[in-house]
Fold:
Amino acid sequence: MGGYVERQMPDTLDLAQRAKLAFNAMLNVADDDCGGIPFFSGFLQSDEENPAWMSHGNWDYGSSHGRLVDTIALVRSMTGTSEGEEVEERYRRNLLSFIHENGLAYRRNSFTEEEIARLDAPFRPGASMIDQRAVILGLGTWYSTTDDEDIKGFADRHMAALKRIARKERESWYYPASEYLEDGWPSLDAVNTRLAYDPCAMWGRQVGPILTYHKLAGNADALELCENFVANITQRSGAFLPDGSWNGALEYRNGHFHTRMGTLLSIARFARFKNDARLTAWVERCYRWALEHWCTGFGWTPGDMLDQCYEHETCTLVDAIGCAITLAKCGYTEYWAVAERFLRGHLVESQLTDTSWVHQLDTKERDIAGYKTFYRVGDRLKGAFAGYAAPNDFVYSGVKGRGHIMDVQTCCVAAGGRGLFYGWSSIVTEERGRVSVNLLLNRATPWLDVESHLPYEGKVVLTVKQDLPDLVCRTPEWAPYGAIQVNYRHGDESKEETGRTLPCIDRVFLRLGAVKKGTAVTVTFPMDERETVETAVDEKYHVKWRGDNVVGISPGGSYLPLYKNKSVDSPAPIRTMRLYEGNGKFYE
Structure:
């Protein structure tokens, strides 16, 4: 793998191209005046007197570094780019520097004396349990791309440390606090009386990257952590209720969507690894409840179920996409459509593709070392993803909730890139000789290339690059099977089929059969145009769709409006595109 394909293609959504754009922000959040530590927050609302700025925060350490190390490697696998290797190396070395001899990653003090006094709590270096998830995520992807035994050593010690500090009650393991200090848990009483903190935030989300590392390295501690953390979440924690609903109580962070959705993704992946149909059904029930009660059809998700409910995090959406794809691979094939709508919808809509409007400084004269920069912020954040988007705007800035907090968070910058990877790596898959086209998006692979004309017209062209014993292609649920036309062209030979003459597989796939190298398979169907009313918390939006793309939303946004000026007149524009087949060995 790893070759490039250059050809005339429809100029439609290319997830790898979007990932290359996101790469700009991933590299340029680095603070060269602070050892390459990335800034966390970005605020773009600006004018000549008040230019855009980025600032540091307490997420700069294990959390941001682990995420960036992970996603930079994923973007390289999607695009073949070698840019930014020096910045990547600084991120990697910084990440290792945060890891204590006890195996856990510790934060450094990013608070001012005034903030410490206001919070009435002295700073002590602590290993945030939220950060540890990002640390093993970064270490695992780093190891998967290099086979570096030194990195495996760091990851093995990290697994041993997480196992050592977990409180163990039969099959249910948990952490009794949000951070572990250099001399142990901060409160003897918390340990003694089992005052476990929010289970999804502290250990539920750890399961996914810990499982990945077990699959990579065969680490036994990692598997044991997964088994016992999953048992705690599903059987004891109370974070999810028996009917699949989410617990919105204060002690569960008001049903914080980011950590809950990440936990469901983690457990879905564990269920698939274990071939556990009962556990998969548990995840599906909880996931479906969230989609039906809180999420829009195009992928907007709330921040939580109370105070932050108007603040969509790209991190949450990415976990929702990953969960949809994992459930689809487990047999719930209707979720392929959810993943495609979310990818085409809020993920790419909430990426910052134009920053020409941002007022920025071209010097560092107003910078505050170690805290804030005003230097070329717009240019540096081009390609970033929204931190707190509204359904119709890049940032929610209404009177409800907390208002306009910030535009960009580095966690969402990295997560957005991972979300693009989730989609890109699942467009075409191969299993036991069957090649499956799951998402109708542009992609080059060793088996075939996909040319998608959606949403301009209902047309997908599959150019087969090797003999395929069994090829299947998903067709949209809104396309009547009797209206689907399939043309096979191989040299001068041509054959026609329809959705009525070809068999259907797993409810949503058309079985195209054995196909020879050099065959072009063109699948066509009529485009669907419809309108829906989508509810986001207590706000209603009138949404116009063309296929799986939102082409209009009312009311429109006012700051950086989304889903505007969507001209999709047929046919799709054509241009020369250079697609990368991909490289790297990545585990789900």
Observations:
- Residues 384 and 413 are 5 Å apart (CA to CA).
- The longest helix spans residues 62-79.
- The mean pLDDT is 95.
- The longest strand covers residues 529-536.
